[in-house]
Design brief:
single chain; alpha+beta; Thiol Ester Dehydrase, Chain A; ApeI-like; HotDog_dom_sf; ApeI dehydratase-like domain-containing protein
């Protein structure tokens, strides 16, 4: 389902962190109900972007173990902002400790700190 809602365009390292450009599909049917006439990318989808980018980078599936903080600061309207930059700082050992943000330009949509485990 997630690959229909968004697509990870490219990922690289910048200043010691993982940086990905993600495009959001404003035409996806989920936005017909969330919310009609005023589409909002669901928070869970934004969090899933982080997990999918990190899992792709590490080459292993991940599962969320703990969410220490998660703040949605601005509405991610896929029509107004069809792209988002995901910045991820992480430390991968037995657990994967993550600090991530989603933004476009100076607009920050979310910030989160989480712990993932390898599946």
């Amino acid at each position: 389902m997630s690959q229909e809602i968004y697509n990870i365009e490219h990922t690289g390292f910048v200043d010691g962190q993982l940086v990905s450009e993600v495009s959001v599909n404003a035409a996806h049917s989920i936005f017909e109900g969330h919310f009609p006439g005023s589409p909002v990318t669901p928070g869970v989808i934004q969090m899933q972007m982080v997990r999918d980018i990190l899992a792709q980078h590490l080459g292993r599936p991940l599962r969320l173990k703990a969410l220490r903080t998660c703040k949605f600061l601005e509405i991610l309207d896929p029509a107004a902002n069809p792209s988002v930059t995901i910045n991820i700082k992480y430390k991968a050992e037995e657990l994967v400790e993550v600090s991530a943000t989603g933004q476009w330009g100076s607009t920050v949509f979310f910030k989160m700190q989480a712990t993932y485990v390898y599946e």
